[in-house]
Specification:
8-stranded parallel beta sheet; alpha/beta; 16 helices; 361 residues
């Protein structure tokens, strides 16, 4: 049995961290669903940047949109929605079979809005309405300014993928925003079963401390932080507040592991996937990691519900003068800036592609 199926059987969802027009047209994404237990996917500006800039798959669609006077962000979101609605339709049977627990795809609001609550809410509503797919999550960053937008989106019935979370306290703040939106729906007499995932970024922790800690601590921080977050997650799921909401018909917000591709070539290429095996969670992984897992992965154990050795490991990092709380804030801030840079690169690629196609016409 492939390790991908092992994860699915223990209750973890495998989502692909990629989307391209070629993946859809070639049938490769369908094959991942059929053969590698993939039940959803996520997207981001960098993924679309590479897909649009490194080939001709989007040229005809861009030409058509140029002829209609489209450009910049408007053109991009049309391209992205075309891809993601097709992917959403592919995963719709999973969504229906699991009653909306699984089978999701994700589209991100403009990262330029990460610190603009009002505009984030407006764009989230617009994108979800344009997609017209119940299994499309709108990605909203779990920044301070993003938290009110998450609450408002959930209250408006818009499924949300909370992104850019790095620690248990950031996760708890995002989960609280989700619950406020759900509780407001219950109070207003609205159906509270709005889908959501909360995405914890893992490997970036280890990249951030590489060369700053003893070699014995290499590639341990991200997993320790994830274990602490998983303990907090299970605690929230069993809390009276969340149980009251579930009793009213709400759907739990699932924890999602993001940034799970191994960055250190000296360690296992499935390091994070093996360590993050846990029921009722999602692991979204790049294609390389997915293939590695299918080819030589072995799932030996699941994450401990009580956090396991996470506090001992984190104490060792504290002894190495790593302030985890301060670093989590730094990583979130850097992540937001990185998303903006990726967005700017994407707009540049689209602009250049448009110029080339205009000259060739």
């Amino acid at each position: 049995m492939k390790a991908t199926q092992m994860l699915r059987d223990l209750g973890q969802s495998l989502w692909l961290d990629n989307i391209t027009r070629n993946l859809l047209r070639s049938g490769v994404l369908r094959r991942y669903v059929d053969e590698l237990s993939v039940t959803g996917l996520t997207s981001n500006p960098t993924i679309f940047d590479h897909a649009i800039g490194n080939g001709k798959d989007y040229d005809d669609a861009i030409k058509s949109k140029l002829a209609d006077g489209k450009s910049g962000e408007q053109l991009f979101f049309e391209l992205a929605l075309e891809d993601l609605t097709q992917a959403a339709d592919l995963f719709r049977p999973v969504y229906d079979r699991t009653s909306g627990v699984d089978g999701w795809v994700s589209l991100e609001v403009s990262p330029l809005l990460a610190h603009d609550t009002k505009s984030t809410i407006a764009e989230a509503k617009e994108l979800h309405a344009r997609a017209q797919r119940p299994n499309l999550l709108i990605k909203i960053p779990g920044t301070r300014e993003g938290l009110p937008a998450i609450e408002e989106a959930i209250f408006a019935g818009i499924p949300v993928n909370v992104t850019l979370l790095f620690s248990d306290d950031q996760y708890i703040a995002a989960a609280d925003a989700f619950m406020r939106g759900v509780e407001r729906r219950i109070a207003a007499g609205l159906k509270p079963n709005v889908g959501s995932v909360a995405s914890i970024f893992v490997s970036r922790w280890d990249v951030a401390v590489a060369g700053k800690v003893p070699e014995a601590l290499n590639n341990q921080l991200g997993i320790a932080v994830a274990k602490r977050a998983y303990k907090a997650y299970l605690g929230l799921l069993s809390s009276p507040r969340w149980m009251r909401a579930y009793n009213a018909g709400a759907r739990p917000q699932r924890l999602l592991w993001a940034s799970t591709g191994t960055k250190d070539p000296k360690t296992s290429d499935i390091l994070y996937v093996k360590a993050l095996a846990a029921p009722f969670t999602v692991n979204t992984m790049p294609e390389g990691t997915l293939h590695a897992l299918a080819e030589h992965g072995v799932i030996e154990a699941t994450m401990p519900a009580d956090g396991g050795d996470c506090e001992e490991v984190l104490a060792r990092f504290a002894g190495a003068r790593i302030d985890v709380h301060a670093l989590s804030a730094q990583l979130q801030d850097e992540g937001a800036k990185s998303f903006v840079n990726s967005w700017s690169d994407l707009m540049g690629v689209i602009g250049s592609k448009c110029d080339v196609l205009k000259r060739a016409s």
